[in-house]
Amino acid sequence: MTNETKQLRDQAEKGRMLYRSGNATMEEAKELVMPYINHFNNRSKELAKKFNQRPKLISFKSFCR
């Protein structure tokens, strides 16, 4: 995991925690979480193409569960 990915993951975890505790609205949490989700989905697509598989994509709702 690269340093950039770790930083995005930490930011996403913070956004999820704020959303779950009710301290942030869905829109505020999405601003923190979506950069990580987009990065994850792009990487998943790259690896799936490389190994001829289907990508495992995540959404905001599935990440916040």
Mean pLDDT over the residues:
96
Report the helical percentage: over 70%
SS class: mainly alpha
Q: Which runs of at least 5 residues are low in confidence (pLDDT < 50)?
A: none
| Count of structural domains | 1
Extended strand count? 0
Strand count, sense and barrel status of the largest sheet are: none
Q: Proportion of β residues? A: under 5%
The number of helical segments is 3
List the secondary-structure elements in sequence, H or E: HHH
- Rounded radius of gyration (Å): 13 Å
Layout of helices and strands:
Layout: H1 3-21, H2 26-50, H3 60-64
What does this entry look like structurally?
- The protein contains three helices and no strands.
- The protein is mainly alpha-helical.
- It has one domain (1-62).
- It is elongated and about 40 Å long.
- It has helices at residues 3-21, 26-50, 60-64.
Question: Which features would summarize this protein structure in a list?
Answer:
65 residues
Quick overview:
The protein has one domain. The protein has three helices and no strands.
